[in-house]
Design a protein that fits this description.
Layout: E1 2-11, E2 14-24, E3 29-33, H1 40-47, E4 55-59, E5 66-69, H2 81-86, H3 90-108, H4 115-133, H5 139-149, H6 166-180, E6 184-188, H7 196-207, E7 212-216, H8 220-226, E8 229-234, E9 237-241, H9 245-280, H10 287-299, E10 326-337, E11 340-351, E12 355-360, H11 366-373, E13 380-385, E14 391-394, H12 408-413, H13 424-430, H14 447-459, E15 465-469, H15 477-489, E16 493-497, H16 501-504, E17 510-515, E18 518-523, H17 526-544, H18 549-562, H19 567-605, H20 614-647
Length: 650
């Protein structure tokens, strides 16, 4: 279906790809893996036709439809969720308009016996057949099913897309791509903004899809459940196996061992042959044998061992000072933003040495409770931090909070004290910052590099209670494994907010589920919790089929009473909504400007004459970093806007 032939991509004398070739065939489900910076996103852009390679080509039939989901995008703000998603069916909607127009023309004409009239009848018949063939009769049901699968509720369908945070807007774009049913899906980190339930729904959808899938993901469980082929990019080359990620790792290891054994045997043969030639070089009686063996060496096809990219994190958290038995004790804890109740009457205890996970749908209060525990937010009820508990916090936006004007070395030197200051370069080296990397400014670092730098800062703090909010975002597979191992060996207490099942598996022994403003404890690992959840979902379906009766009326009345706001409160909410809408508009204007500049830079970078101009590349990296920062600000503004709109119930 798609042929990639001798692809080369070069930046400033550095070859990202060194002549890679492979085929994408129908029903391939390819997991594209590799280290941060290996070129996964670049390869997807080239396949999608949004970037040109330095050399080589990508060939695909003209009728092949591609659905591409990049990591970052901006949606229209003028439509509702349902209207925006309907764009996936533009062909159906255009067909319907044409059929209606032709039917109107047929109804107003009276030349029933003419050739023109019969041509109209035939044309309408053809279009109707096409309309039903491509799903014109049930596309709205497909929209509803897909949006609900991705976590939207029916009441969300009529809300403006501008009311949603960046993560939810990304889901709308994903829904549009899924509904278009392209021949090939190109998905770049599709699970980054999804909760566990939505990830499982997407897994089921892609696993049963009839087309091809090429996806980039750092979620090992997601890759294993969806893919049947793995392509790893490493040091400019690719390794291609017809297996999912876990099986690929086994096969790659076996191949490496076989390759090394063959290499050693050949080296032994070469050494023995060279010794024979050297020993009998000047003996006339052995001249024929020496000549024969010399020719054999010349003809020998030398085995080369694949070079490995062994750069990886080397994390080990320092020993934790001993705390009291109870680390966190919450009783009757509630949290509201104005009239919006997020957490209601929470009871929770975390003890010394516990490793627990906070899971649940986005917006259910996981990060809110983590920030309450850190004493960053006001609340009602009781929350006690135990004796001698020292908290270290890694936030979702921790990487964005770093001072962009400092270098990597300066960032760590700022907080290092005592003997640690003499080991800063060693510590940075353990986190893959070596040589000239330590002099890079933070503003030019990739998302993964910033995350690693923020993790170093956390490790240098003398703490015994780690609170980590989505710590694996932007980390590649090997880095995640090293972080997981370091946390497993850590003798302090750990609280992780995450949707990454593979990362949580074997790490946590207790899961707290956030749902409907409540928190429910599940003892056991993450997969024990997921097995229980599927059983509970079946029970919930049975309960939904039962009439609600008087209880429903009471609940409806209680909600109505709770939603009554005073005139002053409504006035203040409207004022804040207007303020945020202006801020969102300004952010979107800036995002548009930065994206235009980056697009112009992409065209410049395609010029071979600029390959040696480092200032161009520095400007390009700065623009990307600025865009990431504005996108984070825009997402926060939208989340605040969404929370206020939920209060606006009059």
């Amino acid at each position: 279906m798609v042929s990639v032939d001798q692809l080369v991509v070069s930046f400033g004398g550095f070859d990202l790809f060194k002549g890679i070739s492979f085929l994408i065939t129908p029903k391939d489900r390819i997991g594209l893996v590799g280290k941060n910076g290996a070129g996964k996103s670049t390869l997807l852009k080239i396949l999608a036709g949004q970037q040109l390679p330095s050399e080589g080509s990508v060939a695909l039939p003209k009728d092949v439809r591609i659905g591409y989901l990049p990591q970052h995008m901006v949606l229209s703000n003028t439509k509702t969720v349902f209207e925006e998603t309907r764009k996936a069916f533009d062909e159906i909607l255009d067909l319907k308009k044409e059929i209606d127009r032709l039917n109107h023309e047929i109804a107003t004409r009276e030349d029933y016996e003419s050739d023109g009239y019969m041509q109209l009848i035939n044309r309408v018949t053809e279009l109707n057949d096409r309309y039903h063939l491509i799903g014109g009769s049930n596309f709205e049901a497909e929209i509803e099913q897909t949006l609900k699968g991705l976590g939207f509720e029916r009441k969300d369908f009529t809300r403006q897309t501008s009311e949603f945070s960046g993560g939810w807007r990304m889901r709308i774009e994903l829904a549009k791509i899924l509904l278009k049913k392209p021949d090939i899906f190109l998905l770049d980190e599709p699970t980054n903004h999804l909760d566990i339930e939505s990830i499982q729904w997407l897994e089921d959808f892609l696993s049963s899809y009839s087309g091809s899938v090429v996806l980039v993901s750092h979620d090992k469980a997601f890759l294993d459940n969806v893919t049947n082929r793995t392509v790893e990019i490493s040091l400019g080359r690719i390794y291609d196996y017809k297996a999912n990620y876990s099986r690929y790792l086994e096969l790659r290891k076996e191949q490496k061992e076989t390759q090394l054994a063959a290499f050693r045997n050949q080296q032994k043969l070469i050494e023995e042959t060279e010794q024979f030639i050297e020993r009998f070089r000047y003996k006339a009686t052995k001249a024929v044998q020496v000549q024969s063996r010399a020719k054999m060496l010349d003809r020998l096809d030398r085995i080369e061992v694949d070079e490995d990219d062994n750069s990886r994190l080397n994390i080990k958290f320092p020993p934790a000072i001993r705390s009291g038995t109870v680390v966190v004790d919450c009783k009757h804890l509630s949290k509201s933003y104005g009239n919006l109740l997020v957490l209601d009457d929470i009871h929770l205890i975390i003890e010394r040495g516990d490793k627990v996970a906070f899971v649940g749908k986005n917006g259910e209060g996981k990060t809110t409770l983590a920030r309450v525990i850190l004493n960053e937010l006001e609340y009602s009820g009781e929350m006690k931090i135990g004796h001698n508990v020292k908290v270290g916090y890694f936030a979702q936006n921790q990487a964005q909070l770093l001072d962009e004007n400092l270098s990597v070395l300066e960032t760590i030197d700022q907080i290092a004290v005592g003997d640690v200051r003499t080991k800063i370069r060693d510590i940075l080296g353990a986190f893959m910052f070596s040589g000239e990397d330590v002099d890079k400014k933070v503003k030019v670092l990739s998302g993964g590099e910033r995350t690693r730098l923020a993790m170093i800062r956390l490790m240098l703090e003398p703490v015994n209670f780690l609170v980590l909010d989505e710590p694996t975002n932007h980390l590649d597979m090997r880095s995640k494994e090293m972080l997981k191992q370091a946390l497993a060996e850590y003798d302090g207490t750990v609280l992780v907010v995450s949707h990454d099942r593979e990362f949580l598996d074997g790490l946590v022994k207790c899961v707290y589920e956030f749902k409907n403003k409540k928190v429910k404890q599940h003892l056991g690992g993450i997969y024990d919790f997921l097995r229980k959840k599927k059983m509970e979902s079946l029970k919930e379906l049975e309960q939904k089929n039962k009439p609600a009766g008087g209880a429903f009326k009471e609940e409806k009345k209680a909600v109505a009473d709770e939603n009554k706001l005073s005139y002053e409160e409504r006035k203040e909410i409207n004022k804040n909504i207007s303020r945020l809408e202006k801020s969102i508009e300004q952010s979107e204007t800036e995002i548009s400007r930065l994206e235009d500049e980056i697009a112009r830079m992409d065209e410049l970078l395609a010029d071979p004459a600029l390959l040696g101009d480092h200032s161009v590349f520095e400007k390009y990296e700065t623009l990307k970093a600025n865009l990431e920062e504005v996108m984070a600000q825009w997402e926060k503004q939208n989340e605040e806007h969404e929370a206020l709109l939920q209060q606006k119930t009059w």
